[in-house]
C-alpha cells in the first residue's frame, strides 16, 4: 500500500481555508531507484526516510505517482536536513521534479530535520510523476513531501510534527490488525533468530519482527561483522545463523546471509516479519500485553499479542517501552568491583559516567583497471583531518560522552560517514590509489553497546574473571573480556573515530539464566547485547555466537514457560532441572552433514 | 597505547639524536654507575644537570639462557628514586640462529616504559645483520611506548605468516613474512628483536616496580608526580590526593586541566571535591579553558553549570560555537531554568541564532522563540 495521504479536511484549521492537501511519505515511493530506505532513526526523527547513499556517485532517481484530488497550484515542502551544515556546499543536495518540471530549488540545505519550501507548481493532470533527483551521491535525505494549496508550512518541532502526522493521517490509536502468538521475538539479529528457531523447534508459534529486509543484525550483509565466540550447547542452531571468520566488512557476508535467511524461513511456525519495526510495547500490571509494529515502507500497522516476549532489539526498546529497569553507561569501579589496575579509568572509572563502547560503520574499496576519481569532500575533512585509509575494520568506531548511542545514532552514523569519505579522499591523493574505488560503505550503525536491561542477576567482569559456574548457567564463553575506548582520550591528535581494545584473558565463564529475563517485567526475556550485564561484563559476551547462545537459551525457556504456564522466573524457581536437561539435549541432536 | 607521548617528545628526541650523531657511534651517557644526561630515547621530562646514581634493588629480569639480570634504581642527589634501569643482554633467536642483543632499558616509578639507550659499539641489528638506523631506533621507541601493542597477546609464531610450501622438492620453504598489522609497528627485518625488547619492557618487571613504589610511597613522591608532565604520573597522583591536597594543589591541578590529555582532564573534572564548586574563584580557571579542552571534558564541566557564577554563564554564551549540539541543548536548558536571562546573554543568543555559518543556530532560535 503506497502511503500517499490525501487530507481533505483539517479539523484543526479554520473552515475557510480548507484545501486538498497531500502528504507523500518518501519511504513509500513506488520505485526508490538508487535511494535506500533508512528506518534506523524513526524513534528520533519521526519516520523512515529515503537516502541517496551513492558513495559520491549520484544515485538513480526515486519515482512515484501522486494523485491530486484537483488540478491547480500547489505549494510544496520537503522534509529533509543538511547532514553536515557548515561553510561549504551541503553534501546531500537534491532536487524535486513534478511531472516534467524539475523545480529550481536545491534541497537538503537546512540544519536539523525540518521542512524546506520548494516553491509552487501548477498541477495540470490528476496524476503526476514525482521524482527525487540526487545531485551528489553523498547521502541526501528526504523524509516526506507535502503538497498544499495554501502556503503554510507543516510544523517543524518533533513533538508538534508527530501530532500533526497522526491527525492528518487520521490514524486510529490501535492497529486494525492483531495476531496472537506463543512468543513474540523483536529484533532479528543472531540472538533473535536463535530464540525464534529454538522456540519454534519446541512447537511454539513464533512471530519474529525485524526492521530490515535481511536477518542477522550486525552479522548481516548490511553491516558485515563476523561472528565470534563459542557455540556452547547450541552448535546446531547457531551454525544455521553464524558467519565464517572473514575480515569484518567482507562481501563474503552475502553468502552467510542467504544461509541464515533460508534457514529461518524454513520454519513454518516462525511468522517472519521483515521490514517491520516495533514502535510500542504496552504493559499492564508489569506484564507486556502486546507489541505494536509498523511496516517500514507502507506504514501498515499490526499488533502482536503473546504471553511471552523476547527483547533482542539490541537497544532494549521493548523493555524500555514496557518500563523495564535498564542501565546505560559505565558503573563506578566499586559498584561491582570491576577494577583492572593496569588500565584504570579506561577500563572502569572511579566515578560512574555515560561513556559506552562505540558504534562502527564498516567499509571497503577495491582496485580497478582504470583511474577512478573521487569528489572533493571539504565537509568531511574536519572529522577525517589528515587520516588516510582505504578500508575500515572494527577499529572504525565512534563514541563520545555527549552522544547517546540510541538518541544520537544518526549523528554518530553521519560522523562515521564523514570519517570514511574524508579518509578515503585523503588516500586518493596518493598516486598509488589512483585506480582505487569505493566498493561498499555501510549506512547502518553497527552498535556495540546501548541499553542493558536489568535481570535477576547482573553479569559482571567478576563473573567472567572467576569463571563461576552458576547453577543456572545456560551460556558459556571462553573469549576474553574485551572493552574498547577511543584513542583520542589519550592523545588529541588521534582521530576521534578510531578505537583500541583492551583484552582481559579469562577462564571459561558462564552466564546465568537469571541474566536473560527482566527483573520487573514478568514476561520479558532478553537476549543480545541488551541482556542483564554491567558495562565491563558486556565486554566478553557481546559477540554474536555468545548472544546467539542467549537467544537459543531463552527460546527453550519460553517453551517450558508455555508448558507449565509460568513466567520466566518460574522456570528458574521451579523447573530448572528440566530446563537444563532440555539445553543439554541440544548437544545430542544431530548436525546435518552440510553444516559440519 | 596508553598515554601516547606526542610528537613534541619525539621531535625533541630526534633533535637530541641529531646532536649526538648515530647511536652506534656514540657512547651514551651511561657510565655503568648512573646517568648524567637524558637517555637517547626517553618519554619523561629531563631537567638539565640531573645526576642520577645507581642503587641496587632486589629486582631482576630473567633472560633466556643468561639467567637473572639486575634491575637497579636510579636516584637523584637527594636519594629520591627517579627511574629504574637494567643493562640487558639477551639472546634473540630466529630460524635457529641466535645472537645477543644489548640494550639499556629504563622504567618509570610506576613500571611503565621510560626509554632506552643503545650500547656504544654494540648497535642493535636486524635479521640480516644490518645495523639499526636512526629511523629504526625511533620505531622501536614508538613500539615500546605502546603498552597495548599487538605483540602483547600473540606468540611470536602468530606474528609470522606460515611459510609457503616449497614449490619444488628439495627447495627450502620461504621464511614466513611478518603479518600486516604487525609490520606497521615493528622495525622492518627486526621482528624478533622488537618482540624480545617489548616483552622485556612490559613483562613481569612492570608490576614488580609498581609494587615496590607503592610499598614505600611518600607524599613527596606523589607531589613530584603531580608536577610531572607525564600523564600516568599525573593520574597516579590525582588518584591519591585527598580533599585538602586537592585544595592545596589547586593551581597545579588547573594547569594539568588546561594542558593534560583528555583522559586526565576528564578524571579531574569528575573528581574535583565539592568545595571547588562552592567557590567561584576556585572553579573559574577550569571554565576559562572551556573552548580549548576536549569535548568529553567540556560535557563533564557543563554538568556543573548550576554552580557556575553568572560571569561564567555569560562567558559561555559567547562560546556557543564551540559547543556540540547536545552541549548547546544543555546550556539552553540551564538558561531556561534561570529566573531571568540577563540582557548581555540574550544579546549573544540573538546574534548566534541569526549567524548563517553556525550549525546549531536553529536550536538557539527555537529557544528564543519559546522564551518570548
Structural account:
The complex is a heterodimer of chains A (596) and B (372). With 596 residues, chain A is of the alpha+beta class. In chain A, helix 3 (190-201) runs parallel beside helix 12 (544-564). Chain A is built from 14 helices and 32 strands. Chain A has three domains: 4-169, Galactose-binding domain-like (Jelly Rolls), CATH 2.60.120.260; 179-333 and 450-481 and 507-595, 3-Layer(bba) Sandwich (FAD/NAD(P)-binding domain), CATH 3.50.50; 359-447, no CATH class. Helices cover 22% and strands 27% of the residues of chain A. In chain A, strand 17 (287-295) and strand 18 form a beta hairpin. Chain B has 372 residues and is of the alpha+beta class. The longest helix of chain B has 14 residues, at 7-20. Chain B is built from 17 helices and nine strands. In chain B, the strands form two sheets. Chain B has a seven-stranded antiparallel beta sheet with strand order 1-3-6-7-8-9-2. In chain B, helix 6 (219-226) crosses helix 7 (231-238), helix 10 packs parallel to helix 13 (295-302) and helix 16 crosses helix 17. Chain B is elongated, with a radius of gyration of 27 Å. Chain B has a domain at 7-209. Residues 4-30 and 164-175 of chain B have low confidence and may be disordered. The A-B interface holds A 85-87, 110-112, 114, 157, 343-346, 349-351, 353, 355, 400-403, 408, 411, 487-494, 500, 502-503, 505 and B 1-4, 6-7, 148, 153, 231, 235, 239, 261-263, 266-267, 270-271, 294-296, 298-300, 324-327, 357, 359-363, 366.
